[in-house]
Design goal:
Order of helices and strands: EEEHEEEHHHEHEHEEH
Oligomer: single chain
Structural class: alpha/beta
Distance between the termini: 26 Å
């Protein structure tokens, strides 16, 4: 059984506080070269309302983990429970934001945001009101009738995020959503995401390759091991909220958090590089 280490001692969550649980989770793929184990014996509990960020070396199974959460792939072993139920029975409670915005090019921005509500059968007037409210909250009011090609990358990703929130999921999972964006736009979206999270009180699982982003956003950071991905350790981010993420580097314990997180990740990157070299 894998061991999840908290680098700052905190009690395990009360079972009543746990929204999501990974139990002995493994995923393997059949390839022409044989079976490849992507995720192995991963165990973790996520609290209701928690913002969990995940980092790990390339190819360690981070996206595979989210795809299993979203029901796009099935575990080879183990299970994922949302409020004690298998995630296959709870898909309507999960919103998924990918790195690419995936807005439908033939729909306007507001039509894209309304789409999850439309497929759930919500009346047109009600879904339009919800979409307008969310777009205003991320400063996209006035752009409702624009098509995706008429919007910047940051604007499209804001639309993508509020589309995933429009149907009020219990869990929002995000796979490097700010990766392709420039630094200024990235900072803006980080700030808006934290504000939405504070207001919505959703549980968020957020994958990133950016260590400062992982610290700035997360209550905890999980470091995944080199493939096969395991929960190598979990680092508590003891920086008070609300956070001024533009100046978070000035926090007294920020540098220590960044160093400890970087050291854990560097070990796994070395293992990944060595395995690719065959030694």
């Amino acid at each position: 059984m894998s061991l999840v280490l908290s680098m700052d001692s905190k009690p395990e969550p009360d079972p009543a506080q746990v929204l999501l649980e990974f139990r002995n989770l493994s995923k393997s793929y059949e390839t022409r070269g044989g079976a490849v184990l992507a995720v192995s014996n991963l165990n973790l509990q996520v609290r209701d309302g928690e913002f969990l960020t995940i980092v790990g070396p390339s190819g360690c199974g981070k996206s595979t983990l989210l795809n299993m959460l979203a029901g796009l792939e099935k575990p080879s072993e183990g299970e994922i429970l949302l409020r004690g139920r298998p995630v296959a029975e709870a898909q309507r409670e999960i919103g998924y934001v990918m790195q690419n915005d995936n807005l439908y090019p033939w729909r306007t921005l507001i039509q894209n945001v309304m789409f999850p509500l439309e497929i759930r059968g919500m009346p047109a007037r009600e879904r339009k009101a919800i979409a307008e409210e969310y777009l205003a909250r991320v400063q996209l009011d006035g752009f409702e009738d624009k098509y995706p090609y008429e919007l910047s990358g940051g604007m499209r990703q804001r639309g993508n995020i509020v589309r995933a929130l429009s149907f009020s999921p219990s869990l929002l999972i995000m796979d490097e959503p700010f990766g392709p964006l420039d630094a200024q736009t990235r900072l803006l979206l980080q700030m808006q995401l934290l504000e939405l999270w504070r207001e919505e009180k959703k549980t968020v699982i957020f994958i990133t390759h950016d260590l400062p982003e992982a610290i700035a956003l997360g209550d905890r950071v999980m470091v995944m091991s080199a493939r096969p991905g395991r929960a190598k350790c979990v680092l508590d981010v003891d920086i008070s909220r609300p956070r001024d993420i533009a100046h978070i580097h000035e926090e007294s314990n920020y540098r220590d958090l960044l160093t400890r997180l970087g050291d854990e990740l560097a070990e796994e990157i070395k293992i990944t590089v060595a395995s690719k070299r065959g030694g």
